[in-house]
């Protein structure tokens, strides 16, 4: 499945409701945020949207996201962990998915 935003949709800092409906219809319950700039903005908003929409498995790859300072990044990752988000490094995530690749 490939979802492409149309010219009038803002998808940078939220889990667009139309996408959420499509993901639900396809039975997708895992959301991985692999990279992004500004952990306290777009990454955080998308994560909180996904959790509030009851996605069961939301992950942020911590060393593929960033913020203006390491302290801001760490504080936001801490907040996301507190709402149940899984926060592996890219290496940890790759190791955990090796069993699915054959």
Automatic annotation (TrEMBL):
This is Isochorismatase-like domain-containing protein. InterPro entries: Isochorismatase-like_dom, Isochorismatase-like_sf. Residues 34-89 form the Isochorismatase-like domain. It comes from Solanum bulbocastanum. Belongs to the isochorismatase family. It holds the Pfam family Isochorismatase.
């Amino acid at each position: 499945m490939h979802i492409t935003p149309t010219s009038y949709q803002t998808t940078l800092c939220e889990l667009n409701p139309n996408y959420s409906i499509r993901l639900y219809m396809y039975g997708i319950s895992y959301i991985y945020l692999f990279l992004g700039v500004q952990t306290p903005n777009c990454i955080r908003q998308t994560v909180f949207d996904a959790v509030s929409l009851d996605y069961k498995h939301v992950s942020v790859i911590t060393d593929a996201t960033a913020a203006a300072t390491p302290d801001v990044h760490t504080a936001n990752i801490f907040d996301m962990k507190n709402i149940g988000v899984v926060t592996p490094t890219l290496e940890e995530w790759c190791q955990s998915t090796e069993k699915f690749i054959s």
